[in-house]
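Table S2 (text version). Query chain:
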Amino acid sequence: MTQSHLNAVFLSQRTVLLRTLQRIVRNPSIAEDLLQETWLRVTRALGERPIDHLEPFVYQTARNLALDHLRAHKLHARTMVEDAPADQLYSVAATSSLPEDAAHAERLIKGLSASLGRLSERQQRIFTLSRLQGCSYLEIAEQLNVSASTVQKELKLIMAICLDVAARLDHD
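Corresponding structure-token output:
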């Protein structure tokens, strides 16, 4: 395959590629950047080795770049929150919050903390890994040496407890 063949494929598939990237990253500007990066990566790959099936290679490269972007964005967001001191995070007030909303949120946090504090150590670890660290069922299962089904059942129970706390608070 030659650079001119890549250009022809790229031009004919540009609109579909761009829409695919926009669906994945949900940002037109980032999708455009990823589309350009796709072209650069495929061009570089063509210079290093022949590529027999160029069109699928282009799509897979674009998809991989989009998924890498999402992973990096998720890691960056998590790191930014984890790097901030807790007292600063909790002291930030929403600009449109009412005193009643703040009091409700405070009661909800206290209720959830109390309920989650009564969970077993393994259940607390599953909750932390899943909801706070974003681990998958399989990742959690491997870390805790249990089945993915056990992780799923425990999370279902934990989430039911959380929903019950919220429902009781809404009725009070």
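Notes on Table S2: The chain has eight helices and no strands. Helices lie at 3-25, 28-48, 54-83, 86-91, 99-117, 121-132, 137-144, 148-171.
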